[in-house]
């Protein structure tokens, strides 16, 4: 779910030679993105100094790496005096990190994360929820899902094809409850590929608390309970205690969604 005011800021200074110096150190995907961008621009003899600021926690599956990569790509292009459209940014992001979130596109899109291309545009509307974020495994270093086998099989394909049809219809109808149901079912299906610690307990809490749905990160340890947007956070204090008693960390509340045009395939 898109959350306003969360993202990365990047500054890039060109320098002779191919070395990329990145601050803070350890931002390897961002450094790779800088190199990919320079080479794609024809600046093969240049490197530079990249400085990043990103308040998004890493390793939780919140898109921090794509946020860093996208900010880096834009900063490098700007330093070279070029602008890159969303399609170009998507292609470069996949080259840098092998799989990318579609943060470079406005609105809601169905996106091939490992190919870097949009399959369908679903408009500029997104559902409004009160989102309670939960770290199911505090202090974990996250998951490298790129090393996992791609789920295959007729049953799996049928399940996700049906879920895609439901998601498409839910965005077309601008139906938050239906979208929350799709998120819940998607999270359930994902357990056969990458099980999440405490998932069954969270699913039970979703039902008991009256949440509309449950979403999870496909590549991290974070989950989110989706409530009606008019829900008051203070009424959910007992729920926070029950989540913490499971050895999980509550990461706070945020509000998602904005109005826009309905979806179209």
Number of E-type strands: 9
**Highest-level CATH class of the largest domain:** Alpha Beta
CATH homology group of the largest domain: GHMP kinase, C-terminal domain
CATH topology of the largest domain: Alpha-Beta Plaits
Estimated share of beta-strand residues: 15-25%
Query: Please, how many domains?
Result: 2
Q: Assembly type of the shown chains? A: single chain
Residue windows where pLDDT falls under 50 for at least 5 positions: 260-265
Q: What number is the mean pLDDT?
A: 90
Q: Over the alpha carbons, how many angstroms does the gyration radius reach?
A: 19 Å
Write down the secondary-structure element order.
Answer: EEHEHHEEEHHHEEHE
At CATH level 2, the architecture of the largest domain is 2-Layer Sandwich
Q: Please outline the major beta sheet.
A: 4 strands, antiparallel
Shape: globular
Strands ordered across the widest β-sheet: 7-8-6-9
What share of residues is helical? 25-40%
- Provide a count of the helices: 7
Structural class assignment? alpha+beta
Distance between the termini: 20 Å
Keywords: Kinase, Transferase
Enzyme class: transferase
GO molecular function, one term: ATP binding
Organism: mine drainage metagenome
């Amino acid at each position: 779910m898109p959350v306003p005011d969360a993202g990365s800021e990047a500054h890039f200074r060109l320098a002779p030679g191919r070395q990329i110096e990145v601050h803070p150190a350890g931002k390897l995907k961002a450094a790779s993105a800088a190199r990919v961008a320079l080479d794609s621009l024809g600046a093969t003899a240049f490197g530079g100094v990249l400085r990043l600021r990103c308040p998004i926690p890493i390793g939780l599956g919140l898109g921090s790496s794509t946020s860093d990569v996208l900010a880096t790509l834009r900063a490098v292009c700007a330093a070279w005096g070029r602008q890159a459209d969303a399609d170009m940014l998507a292609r470069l992001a996949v080259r840098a990190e092998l799989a990318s979130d579609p943060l470079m596109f406005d609105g809601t899109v169905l996106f091939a994360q490992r190919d870097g291309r949009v399959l369908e545009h679903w408009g500029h509307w997104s559902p409004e929820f009160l989102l309670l974020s939960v770290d199911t495994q505090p202090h974990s270093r996250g998951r490298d899902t790129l090393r996992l086998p791609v789920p295959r099989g007729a049953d799996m394909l049928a399940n996700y094809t049906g879920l895609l049809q439901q998601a498409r219809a839910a965005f077309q109808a601008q139906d938050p409850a239906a979208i929350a149901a799709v998120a819940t079912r998607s999270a359930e299906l994902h357990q056969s590929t990458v099980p999440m610690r405490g998932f069954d307990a969270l699913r039970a809490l979703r039902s008991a608390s009256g949440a509309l749905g449950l979403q999870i990160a496909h590549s991290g340890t974070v989950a989110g309970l989706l409530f009606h947007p008019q829900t008051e956070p203070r009424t959910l204090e007992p729920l926070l205690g029950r989540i913490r008693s499971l050895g999980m960390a509550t990461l706070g509340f945020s509000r998602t969604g904005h109005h826009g045009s309905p979806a179209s395939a």
